[in-house]
Amino acid sequence: MKRVITGAVLGMACLFLFSCANNKKDAQGKVLNIYVWNDEFPSRFNDFYKSKLPEDVKVNFVQTPNQNNAYQDKLDEALLAQASASADDKIDIFLVEADYALKYVDTPYTLDVVRDIGLKESELANQFKYTQDIMRDSNGKLKGVSWQACPAGVVYRRSYAKAVLGTDDPAEVQEAISTWDKFDAVAAKMKAAGYYMVSGYDDDFRVFSDNVTSPWVKGNQIVVDPQINRWIEQTKEYTDKGYNNKTSLWSAEWSNGMMENGGVFCYFGPAWFVDFSMPHDAGSAFGDWAFVKGPQGFSWGGTWICAAAGTDNVDLVRDIMYTLTCDKDTMVRIAMEASDFANNEPAMREVANSNYKNDFLGGQNHMAFFIDSAASIDKSAISKYDQGMTEKIQSAMKDYFDGKVDLDTAWENFYTAVLELYPNLKR
Prior knowledge:
The protein has about 425 residues and is of the alpha/beta class. It has 19 helices and twelve strands.
């Protein structure tokens, strides 16, 4: 039987974890175990913190892919064994995404970054509010911090815009796709010119899913927001009309659309998408891209640093959290060197008003238009089921988009898959 974090096992672990959360050790450990699902945090750690690391401390990144819940399963197993693990094997830090952050926030497995770790409210004050709202438990305790905020937009090909719209200027392109009706009209023009508007089925899923007004689950009832149905309708239309290339997110075919002769006009994503998900090597369309808001504001993702109850590296964890998420100078460096939109409003205003230029984006300073969006992000409709729901709805609807099943069958397949993953829910 798969061992996951549930209410039943929480009770067994609470006494140990409560003790660890309230009794900092004077002697700091010599091994720092950090649980991650990809190279994003290790790269930020190595580029912007590693030089501060004490020479006698070994960092051990335990990496497990996110797909099919593998990372959470591995993390859950380790957290459940935290009480009996040796000092050098205990988790010190683990990373979470917005899609499942709530699963860990309201548990004793995560330490309060103010009371337990020692960050000051004044040090945290310049972070964008939504990044903290996501990580507050039912008692208002802050259980994680992030170096990034993730307002998102449309990344488009400058050369295709010039060919079809007569301009690659971000202000003019934004006007051309500022509503979904206008976006659809441009999609028809791109098709006529031999280009795909988007690569595949999932490119704008996050635009719609981030604008839902109700969470996926209320009580234990599955709820499908109208925005999800809007995504299904649009994607089916784009597929039937040949406006997309029938690819799936993260696949090789999807990424190939970003290459020099990829033929795809635009992708949807936040700042991390440009640096972390788009090819920058030989054969890519480096320099032929630009960023705009697009037809509907949204945000996508984000990674939070959590301190695990039981860590024997509290002081080091505090310094990592402070340096990577609070220190303005580091935040400016992250933005200018890694193209990430950092979680510090004064730092981002400084970058927005500087001579910063992103070579990948044809010299654009794309940070400026993100600031107001970041301040207005509302994550009140998130739930701990978001990752599973997202994966299952995309998978089930792919067969519908491909014409393998009708819409009713696709929905039945979605509910079957979701109820297998979350047997406590009902349709």
